[in-house]
TrEMBL record:
Keywords: ATP-binding, Nucleotide-binding. Residues 60-293 form the KaiC-like domain. Coiled coil: none annotated. Residues 310-334 are annotated as: Disordered. This is KaiC. The keyword Nucleotide-binding applies. The lineage of its organism: Archaea, Methanobacteriati, Methanobacteriota, Stenosarchaea group, Halobacteria. GO terms for molecular function: ATP binding. Residues 325-334 have a biased composition (Polar residues). It comes from Natrinema pellirubrum (strain DSM 15624 / CIP 106293 / JCM 10476 / NCIMB 786 / 157).
Length: 334
């Protein structure tokens, strides 16, 4: 069969490699046990190695309705995402919900808590009616504590907590990874890796960082830049565990950190509504490497227990998918 005829046939009837599970673009490497895209896959299979189906871990449906509506095929699991936007857009609630939806799926999660003590971070779940005690006890949730060691008197802080906060702190004690020098980006990264190792997180779950602004106030913008580059390589790219980091625009057009560090940026904004003194919350995907997304703003609202949900008319709607490479293709919003 000629190369052209083989290429035409492969496009019409693509074969799947029995090792890596990706389409075979040309004539397969075959033996008595299967068909492979390359000699490397054939040899790996002969050694008894089996790769998981990439669809099982390489894309993530977040479970957050407005966000998933814009990324209908899922977010690449090797992504570092920035939640960037105005105050009042429920950015903190979005980060909390992303963790809860992962736990609902039976996946582990790590919260890097820079702006709040661990008990306050956990309380955000309870404010939504989401009970995380079972996840803490079953080793599916870790809190990387970058807050407590910034206090002048940690004992006084613990002694002054009310009964519920005391109970929650004691119940979560084994799930907290303390960072003694949160101004040192390497110590923060090491704490994050300890949490990931504790939960054996590879190809599953996600990480959230509650505030890059707060981290920057501790260590400076240059060190934050180095930190996010580090964890993008060692967590997202190496483990296929996505990281979602939050930051406020604080009246600026964008977060001052260089955008090239992030694989995806989700913008959140407030816009005046038609009625007097009404403001709508909206989100949009500005960029997302490796995935198609709908380039439009979605109006959303928030309710405890329900989380974020699409509401009201969307704006700036174009029925096309942004492919992340400067081109688009037509698509119907799901």
């Amino acid at each position: 069969m000629s190369d052209q005829l083989w290429t035409d046939r492969a496009r019409e009837y693509p074969l799947e490699c029995d090792h890596c599970h990706y389409p075979i673009p040309g004539e397969p490497e075959a033996d008595e046990d299967g068909r492979y895209c390359s000699a490397a896959c054939r040899e790996a299979a002969g050694d008894g190695a089996t790769m998981p189906d990439p669809d099982a871990y390489k894309r993530v449906m977040t479970g957050v309705e407005p966000l998933d509506s814009l990324v209908p095929d899922g977010i690449p699991a090797d992504s570092l995402l920035l939640l960037s936007g105005d105050e009042g857009t429920r950015r903190a609630e979005l980060g909390t919900e992303l963790v809860w939806r992962a736990l609902e799926r039976g996946e582990p999660a790590v919260v890097c808590s820079v702006a709040n003590p661990p008990t306050a971070t956990l309380e955000r779940f309870y404010e939504n009616g989401w009970n995380v005690l079972p996840a803490l006890e079953r080793d599916r949730l870790r809190i990387v504590d970058c807050f407590t060691h910034r206090l002048d008197d940690r004992d006084e802080f613990r002694a002054g907590r009310n009964e519920w906060a005391t109970f929650l702190g004691e119940a979560a004690a084994d799930a907290v990874v303390e960072v003694e020098a949160p101004s040192d980006r390497r110590e923060v990264a090491n704490g994050l890796h300890r949490a990931l190792d504790d939960l054996e997180m590879t190809e599953t779950g996600l990480v959230t960082i509650d505030s890059l602004d707060e981290l920057e106030s501790l260590s400076g913008s240059g060190l934050v830049h180095d930190f996010v580059k580090d964890v993008r390589a060692t967590v997202c790219m190496a483990r296929f565990v996505p990281i979602v980091a939050a930051a406020t625009t604080a009246g600026q057009a964008a977060y001052p950190e260089t955008e090239r560090v992030f694989d995806g940026i989700v913008d959140l904004r407030l816009r005046d509504g038609g009625a007097a003194e009404t403001r709508h919350k909206q989100l949009a995907v500005r960029k997302l490497t490796g995935a198609a997304f709908l380039p439009q703003w979605v109006t959303y609202d928030y309710e405890p227990a329900r989380g974020l949900f699409a509401s009201g008319p969307n704006t700036d709607t174009r029925q096309a998918r942004d492919l992340g490479n400067g081109s688009t293709q037509s698509a119907q919003r799901r």
